[in-house]
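User: hey, got a sec? need DEAD/DEAH box helicase folded
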Amino acid sequence: MLFFTRKKSWKLFAGISLLAVFQFACSNEVKNNSKEINSENNMKSEKLINPEEMTLQARYGVPQGYKRVAVEKGSFAEFLRNQKLKPYGEKVKYFNGNYKQSEGIYDSVFDVEIGDRDLHQCADAIMLLRGEYFYSKKEYDKINFNFVTGFNAQYSKWMQGYRINPNGKGSYYKKSAPSNTYKDFRNFMNIVFGYAGTLSLEKEMTPQKIENMKIGDVFIMGGSPGHAVIVVDMAENEEGEKIFMLAQSYMPAQQTQILINPENGGVWYSLKGKDVLVTPEWKFPIEELRKF
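Assistant: Yep! Here you go:
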């Protein structure tokens, strides 16, 4: 299905066609058939929301009978669970300043700056969260992602003043003095967003069995079209049944958002007895779960 192209409107490098890369971004198809979902009305979130709170964990309570799963201090899971949110009721902003309707799609918006270029789509949002986590821990050598071509972009090289020539298989060249500001980090991530996507990210990740799902795992279908959503919180009951929350960006580039479960109108999902995860804008076979 090579007639789908990634819609990223920027020109950072001359002499290279980005068509082969952009084919593997999110699709703008809506896939909201919910036949695979059974009734889960007990997980409606109306009474579980603390709208005045500004982090994911504080804003959303868990359904009766469930407790949040324990996570290690300083882990990626803890980082995701404590993501800052925009004031409750704010709309997702597109890169061009327009706003995305919320009804039936998302319940809250991550407090993330996406710039004014079409560079923060589905896989990009996940890579940014991963990169932000390591940047916050000063583990700069762990901030690296593969382009669709296979080239491994490393922030540790970028910090040293090297820049990336994406022609062919890709290469580094020395351009500036060493620098490690947050602006440097985001400039690096913008390059990654331009030359990586669902196809490359899926190949970087490892298949995860659904029964072993953890916060930070990703449902991802790489290709053309493709899409990805990330597990940002989980809870469990005494029987060991797990529920989870999902976040995504989409296309065109937009702020990351907490997804609504199309079956029950809440933010908690369950895969008990199911082989397909249905989200407001995509369906994933459960075999598409991956881990970092």
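Quick note: Residues 1-23, 30-39 have pLDDT under 50 and may be disordered. Let me know if you need anything else on DEAD/DEAH box helicase.
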